[in-house]
Amino acid sequence: MDRSNAMPTVLHAPISPADIAPFKIGDVVYISGVLYTARDKAHDRMLADPHLPFSLQDACIYHSGPLIVKEGDTYRVVSAGPTTSARMNAQTPSIVKQGVTAIIGKGGMSQEVARSFAGRCMYLAFTGGCGMLAREKIVEVLDVYYAELGATEAVWKLKVLNFGPLLVAIDSRGDSIYETVRARSHERLLRLIAERKRAL
Amino acid sequence: MPSHREAFILHVAQALQEAETRLPRDVTRALANAAKVESNDRAKEQICTILENVKLAGAAGLPMCQDTGVPIFFVEIGREANIDFGLKEALATAVQRATDAVPLRKHAVYPLTRRSCDEPLFDMICDVSEGNRLSVAVLVKGAGSENVSALAMLEPLQDVRPFVLNTIWESGGKPCPPIIVGLGIGSTFDGCARLAKRTLLRSLEEDQSPFEAEILEQINELGIGPMGLGGDTTALRVFVEEAPCHTAMLPVAVAVQCWADRKARFSIKL
Lengths: 200, 270
Fold this sequence. Notes:
Oligomer: heterodimer
Radius of gyration of chain A: 18 Å
Order of helices and strands of chain A: EHEHEEEHEHEHEEH
Strand order of the largest sheet of chain B: 2-1-3-8
Largest sheet of chain B: 4 strands, mixed
Shape of chain B: globular
Number of helices of chain B: 8
Structural class of chain B: alpha/beta
Distance between the termini of chain B: 12 Å
Strand content of chain A: 25-35%
CATH topology of chain A: fumarase
Number of helices of chain A: 6
Helix content of chain B: 25-40%
Helix content of chain A: 25-40%
Strand order of the largest sheet of chain A: 2-3-6-7-9
Shape of chain A: globular
Structural class of chain A: alpha/beta
């Protein structure tokens, strides 16, 4: 299918597993609705918390430590791009088991994570460093959880509109752009090193 | 005569603000050129998204990336400069002011307890030169790129290329490519790391040495691409700095910088 002239696909979060099923690596989507930011400490807290203050069922997790400042009683989002997702590799299969259907981040995740998706989750790449672009798409700060972890590590519940562009980089079947790139670049690495050895 | 402290603090805070909010022109031009020659459409789109983000940050005067990083100050003190204040304390005050004014993210923690730390986070490297000027260059390093930087004490006759290429391959999309790579070769364990980091202050438009061009070509041959999603543009530039070392040593440091190669400088007469 030629998507070049198609209207961009907008998913509404929370997202059901049925909604993510059609998407394949290489597709571009946008998300409107609710995102929960979570990074290292928040993942540990969510997994240890028997009484989660929010539901992970069909939730969209955003790997981000946003720069948000409190002004009076309201929060102002200053810059809110994605953080390196690989740091959350270890905890992610357990998070997926709790019903998370979409993870937004940058830099990719491991093959173990890709395998854990098993038809019920996908990984969406947001361009790293693009904190201002993300800011433009955040409509409202709805809530903050685990604030004692500090503003960077806390879970922020954000209302977003047309958040993206997001590239489906690991789909629900577990196909991963990162794995393809990693395998090909490894072949090239070995070839370059071998050529170098011959030259010496 | 009034102390120079206040003027210095103002300059430092301004330089830090400029670095965080405006991508230097040499980097913007390198990204725009990469977008032009990139043969992979997905990679091209990633670079265009970056350029759009850079434009938004510049227009709003806000940090291009929410990871406002760790500022590293390279201070050059002219030996005739009249410095009538504590440098470290003044830098800390300037970082604190910029943190409140820009604003910047407060993400400092104590390394073992991981508890929040309220002190301003920065690093300072001092050198002494001739004259009466106090010059400061600031480099802002985010965690994504700093985390993949690496150092090795190689065997004296070993080829440095496999270590460099392997470091870049291992890092994949984590440091937010297109990256800038600084290599410090020689000196000592800590000396090579400082050499590597200092190269990142250089302009991307300086002439390349044949060795720098060779390493750049090999890195880009890996095909990691912008954000690790594949493409021709993994690195925009490789800088190499050498220093003599002990005959029984070969220290090599690879300092990786993200596309958000945030740097600014100033110089004042004291």
